[in-house]
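Session log. Operator J.P. requested a structure for one protein chain; no other inputs attached. Running the standard single-chain path with token output.
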Amino acid sequence: MTAPRTKREPAAPKAPPDAEQAFEIAGRFLGTRPRSRWEVEQRLKRSGTTDPVIRATLTRLERIGFVDDLAFARWWIEQRDRHSPRGRVALETELRAKRVPPAIIGALRDAPEDEAPMTEDQRADAALERHLKGRPLPEDPKALQRLGMYLVRRGFDPNSARAALRRRGASG
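Structure written below.
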């Protein structure tokens, strides 16, 4: 005969993080990569932090420059340009998903071309080059159409996609 099983006592409810604990949680979260204000806010909510402490922590982080949506958006675009080029439409969609304010997205869109890490044409060319991986541009019209649709799915407008294919065809 076995001994009766005892139920485990429920854990005592944990107190929500105070201001210093919330700051530590946010600091560790920001230690891996820059984050948007919304991302940090969501992380603090998941940890059970109260709304007044979240607001105070975000204000403190903004004041010392750890949370800056404009800097985050620039970093995000630069990383995309370097590792996985996308068109303006896709970049703006990703930034909206990270809850970057529309005013910041608009300011980046309206920034002079010389301030942007890459122009839309350069991005399209880089995306096409990465996709082809050094292979020549196919001559089959259906294959060219598929490449154009690939670029459109990556957020490039159809005109940019066609122009990238033309430029690649002229140079390859």
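Operator note: The first helix runs from residue 19 to 30.
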